[in-house]
Design brief:
heterodimer, A: mainly beta, 6-stranded mixed β-sheet, about 55% strand, B: mainly beta, about 50% strand
Chain lengths: ~110, ~120
Amino acid sequence: GENVEQHPSTLSVQEGDSAVIKCTYSDSASNYFPWYKQELGKGPQLIIDIRSNVGEKKDQRIAVTLNKTAKHFSLHITETQPEDSAVYFCAALSGGSYIPTFGRGTSLIVHP
Amino acid sequence: EPEVTQTPSHQVTQMGQEVILRCVPISNHLYFYWYRQILGQKVEFLVSFYNNEISEKSEIFDDQFSVERPDGSNFTLKIRSTKLEDSAMYFCASSINNGGRSPLHFGNGTRLTVT
């Protein structure tokens, strides 16, 4: 099955800085890569996703890049704000299943 | 915006007891899921449900677990005889299509504490 590795486990930045979270996946047939944000006491919420037919996708301050050859994808948050503080999970969906496999999560802390 | 709702938010039970966790998925969604998250660890898939039957399950989802959609709105997870290691956050999710074609929408979770 699919295996997703996520780094770093904790990321601390100053407000206004950029943050980058990286994930790798094992199944070359994976074709869908969602990112979820989990705020304290809540369930994960989808913030952006990318499919394997594109290399980059942007939505305001967040962007995701995908390198299929290297089997890694990254989340980029620019101009971070304190409300971006949360746990972020990457996920990958292998071609043989429709169940996303999640990474271990990254705790992002944005200091005002 | 429609939401997935879960009840209760926190459940405390004694080891060996049965618990039922309840979920109301988004009304026009067709696929339903249960995930769990042990404190500080990754979100782990338990089971998916479509067309009134289990479509996929993980190794975690053994005979102690069962799911049911008793009516047109509720989706439940039952743990027959709870163990200490069942303590975790349990998340229900739903999607309009399967997880590869549309995103999962998660509820806020039920924190299960087994003592």
